[in-house]
TrEMBL record:
The lineage of its organism: Bacteria, Pseudomonadati, Pseudomonadota, Gammaproteobacteria, Thiotrichales. This is Transcriptional regulator. InterPro entries: Cro/C1-type_HTH, Lambda_DNA-bd_dom_sf. Coiled coil: none annotated. Residues 36-90 form the HTH cro/C1-type domain. GO terms for molecular function: DNA binding. It holds the Pfam family HTH_3. PROSITE patterns: HTH_CROC1 (PS50943).
Length: 95
């Protein structure tokens, strides 16, 4: 956990994560790069912690978040899994 932040109570942590997931779901057009960075930073994870949690190299995460590379579906799934999310396809007709 990034030490720049005060520790949240378990209830506050759950509420923050629910709000974050709702925010991500409400923006289906959000780029994967933006979604991953938002998920990581808003849950207060450092790149090193996120890397250890997902098994994806720190440099790879940094490059994806900076838009310098595009992850494979397998890598994207690894990065989304801790948040209970998966890659998917949605229709733009409804958005």
């Amino acid at each position: 956990m990034d030490k720049r932040y005060n520790t949240l109570s378990p209830l506050e942590e759950i509420e923050m994560r629910k709000a974050l997931l709702d925010e991500i779901r409400e923006q289906p057009g959000m780029s994967l790069m933006t979604a991953l960075r938002t998920l990581r930073t808003r849950t207060r994870l450092t790149v090193a912690e996120y890397s250890k949690m997902t098994g994806v190299a720190e440099r790879t995460i940094q490059n994806i978040e900076a838009g310098r590379s595009c992850p494979t579906i397998k890598t994207a799934d690894k990065l989304l899994k801790p948040f209970g999310l998966v890659m998917g396809v949605c229709s733009t007709k409804n958005h």
